[in-house]
Amino acid sequence: MNASLFDLQGRVALVTGAGANGGIGHAIALGLAQQGADIFVADVDEAGAAATVAEIHLLGRRAAMAVCDISCAEQVQALFAAVDRFFGRVDIHVNVPYAFPSRVHPDELSLEAWHQTLAVSLTGYFLCAQQALRRMLVQGEGVILNIGSIAGVSALGRGNFPYSVAKAGVAQLTRELAVEYAGKGIRVNAILPAQVLTPSFQKALLGDPRFGERLRERLLVGIPINRLLEPQDFVGPAVFLCSQAAGAVTGVLLPVDGGNLALNAGGSHSWPVD
Ligand SMILES: NC(=O)c1ccc[n+]([C@@H]2O[C@H](COP(=O)([O-])OP(=O)(O)OC[C@H]3O[C@@H](n4cnc5c(N)ncnc54)[C@H](O)[C@@H]3O)[C@@H](O)[C@H]2O)c1
To answer: What are 39-91's pLDDT values in tens digits?
Structure first.
C-alpha cells in the first residue's frame, strides 16, 4: 500500500465541533493533522477550540480557530471569511456538531425543540457545506465529510425523534451534494457512528439514571464487536475519506458502528423508566 495515498500535507481542513472535549470532531481534527493537514477549528466552545489549536501546533501543523454556532448563517459566513483570511483555501470540510433536545415522546415534543435540533444538526451542515462548496468550486476540488448516525437510517425509538430526522437529512444531504458536484472534483461522504464513548454521550445517555443499570449491556447487544466505540475509531475512516485513497468514493454513508447496521439492531425499543 502506498502510504502517500493517505497523505494530507498541504491540505487545509476546517473541522466544526472540534473543541478539545474528547469528542469525535476533536479526534478527527488531530487525526487529519497527524496526516499532515493544517486545521481550522470551529466550535461554540472557545476554550475547547483554543486547546485543540494548541494540540495541533504541537503536532507541527498550522492551526487557527473561530467561535461559531453553525446554526447561524451570519456566524458561518464569518467563519469562512476567517478561514479565507488565515489559509486562503479550504480543501476539506468536516461537519460534526449536533443538538439533542431532552428526551420526550414525539407527541410531547415542543416546536422549539424540533427547530433547535434541526437548526444545528441539519441546517448548520447545509450552511457550512454551501460556504465550503463555493470555495471548492473555485479551487476545482474539495472534500466534504458529514458525521451522520445510525439513527439516520435505523429507528431507535427512545426519544431521539428530531435528532434522527435531522440525521436522515444529513444522509440525503450527503447523497444529493455528492451527485450534484461529482463532475466538479468535489467528493461528499458521511460517517455513521453507533454509540461512541464521548463525554457528551456518557453524560446524556449512560449518565441518565432513567435508562437503568442495564443500558450498556442492552446497547452492546446491538454492536457485534461487543464494545462501544471510541472517538479514535473515527480517525482512520475520516483520513481515508478525506484523502486521495478515496479519490473515487463519493456519496457513501460509511457505518463505523461495530456491525450495528449489518445486524439491523440500531433500536433498543427501550424507554427510560420515569
Ligand atoms: N457520541 C455518540 O454516541 C454518537 C453516535 C452517533 C452519532 N454521533 C454524532 O457524532 C457527532 C459528534 O458527537 P460527539 O459525541 O463527539 O459530540 P461532542 O458533544 O463530544 O462534540 C460536539 C462538539 O460540537 C460543539 N458544538 C455543539 N453545538 C455546536 C454548534 N451549534 N456550533 C458549533 N459547534 C457546536 C460542541 O461544543 C462540541 O465541541 C455528532 O454529529 C453526533 O450526532 C455521535
So the answer is: 999 999 999 999 999 999 999 999 999 999 999 999 999 999 999 999 999 99
**C-alpha angle 42/245/141, rounded to 5°?**
55
| The three grid cell numbers given for residue 104, joined into one nine-digit string | 420526550
Q: Which atom of ligand 1 is nearest to the CA of 99?
A: 28
What are the residue ranges of helices labelled H in the chain? 24-34, 46-58, 73-86, 111-118, 124-139, 161-180, 199-201, 215-221, 235-242, 260-263
Ligand 1 binding pocket includes 255 (Cβ within 6 Å): no
Name the CA dihedral angle for 195, 200, 202, 203, rounded to a multiple of 10 degrees: -140
Which residue bears the cell 501546533?
57
Q: Is 213 in a helix, a strand, or coil?
A: coil
Q: Which CATH architecture has domain 7-166+175-194+232-251?
A: 3-Layer(aba) Sandwich (3.40)
